[in-house]
Amino acid sequence: MKIVDARVIVCSPDRNFVTLKIETDEGIYGLGDGTLNGREMAVASYLSEHVIPCLIGRDPFDIEDIWQYLYRGAYWRRGPVTMSAIAAVDVALWDIKGKALKTPVYNLLGGKSRQGVLVYTHANGKTVDETVASVRRYMDAGYLAVRAQCAVPGVASSYGVPKGGKPYEPAERGLPSEDVWSTERYLNFVPGLFERLRAEVGHDVHLLHDVHHRLTPIEAARLGKSLEPYHLFWMEDPTPAELQEGFALIRQHTTTPIATGEVFNSVWDAHDLIRKQWIDYIRMTIVHGGGITHLKKTADFAALYQVKTGFHGATDLSPITMAAALHFGLAIHNFGIQEHMHHSELTDRVFPHEYSFNAGYMYPGDAPGLGVEIDEALVSQYPYQRAYLPVARKLDGTMTDW
Ligand code: EZ4
Ligand code: CO
Q: Which of helix, strand or coil describes residue 376?
């Protein structure tokens, strides 16, 4: 089999997605996601200008060799743009191989290790009451694990809370909006939120919380310690992870489990975090971490240190990445949990898919390959629109981490 054509499709069915379609001389094609929220066109042009010309004529079954060619062959290594572009190619090739061998991708990764993939979703509210009600709604819908975020009193727009009653979507058309941040108000507020949640919803449901890189290590240590009575499934991104040894300080003070890595793009970003057992869950995801090929190696490395996966799965990751993550999560042994934020009805129509949710678990389906399509006629009605993530400033105007 030979690759005869490849094309980048950038579309915006409620939000932007970068999709790579690779076609072969046998009529089989594969789909890969290269979406990098707020920097979509950088990946699109990296693919069309620099990657696609090198793919034509290659055997799509040579996934490892093509991965190494794109990674080592570029000379310039790593980075979110490069690794998302490599991921788009890699995932499309796994899709092609599954279709050619007439088997779902999870069978190419070792077969089923479990019956379903445990997922968590996002609850939020402008008040504690609203957040409790939101967690209950998702429990009633069958979720066994729920992430809870709440507006912090005195902090105008808090992370993870929707504006104007719309579902929370981490991207906005137009230039970046500016959020406000106060570490003091946040740290004083969050333990009370989880005290109330445990009192209201009991101890069976898994509760998670995303700090979104906003604390210093010692502040994160204080938060983790104060949340111990409410036994969170995890505290996510407690501090920016460029400084990996910052997590050692958090670990000295708290037993609250830690997840990090949604902005990582290579195993090297997590090398010390994993081998020193400073984290419990690795969140680097298939689209931003070089695809299934590189995540499989990362997960196997993490398994040696009893670190599990907890991949990023917000709506800026397309249904193609969601499907890939579900095949991956069904197959590997050290799977922990998968994030699942619902795509809009329009996004789901543009990317018809086989995966489904039932009683707290998701299932990739048994279609050959990944089981995701793209409706190209529909796509043409929703062209790319420039959009950005918000930025954040402290109360005195200093730029801080969003
Ligand atoms: O801010 O996906 O855990 N989920 C998250 C997301 C991220 C967005 C960034 O594009 O932190 O909401
Ligand atoms: Co997060």
A: helix
Report the catalytic residues: 159, 212
Helix (H, G, I), strand (E, B) or coil at 64: helix
- Kindly list the protein residues whose Cβ atom lies closer than 6 A to any atom of ligand 1: 37, 170, 210, 212, 262, 312, 314, 316, 339, 389
Q: In terms of residue numbers, what domain contains 71?
A: 3-104
CA–centroid distance, residue 314 to ligand 1 (Å): 6
Going from the Cα of 237 to the center of ligand 2, the distance in angstroms, rounded, reads 7
CATH number at residue 306: 3.20.20.120
Q: Do 89 and 140 fall within a single domain?
A: no
pLDDT in tens, 89-144: 999 999 999 999 999 999 999 999 999 999 999 999 999 999 999 999 999 999 99
Residue range 52-75, pLDDT digits in tens: 999 999 999 999 999 999 999 999
- Residue 100 sits in a domain of what CATH number? 3.30.390.10
23 CA distance to ligand 2 middle (Å): 34
Region 231-238: mean pLDDT is 98
Q: Which among 119, 163, 262, 265 is the best mutation to test ligand 1's pocket, defined by most ligand atoms within 8 Å of the CB? A: 262
CB < 8 Å & 24+ apart, contacts of 253-258: 253/221, 253/222, 253/224, 253/225, 254/221, 254/224, 254/225, 254/227, 254/228, 255/224, 255/228, 256/223, 256/224, 256/225, 256/227, 256/228, 256/232, 257/232, 257/233, 257/281, 258/224, 258/234
Q: Whose CA is nearest to atom 6 of ligand 1?
A: 314
Instruction: Say whether both 236 and 323 belong to one domain.
Output: yes
Among the atoms of ligand 1, which is closest to the Cα of residue 317?
A: 2
Alpha helices in 51-127 (DSSP H): 52-55, 63-73, 80-101, 105-108
Which of 117, 280, 132, 150 shows the shortest CA–CA distance to 200? 132
**pLDDT more than 90, % of the chain:** 95
CA of 235 to the centre of ligand 2 (A): 10
Closest ligand to C-alpha of residue 260 is 2
Same domain, yes or no, for 140 and 80? no
pTM exceeds 0.85:
yes
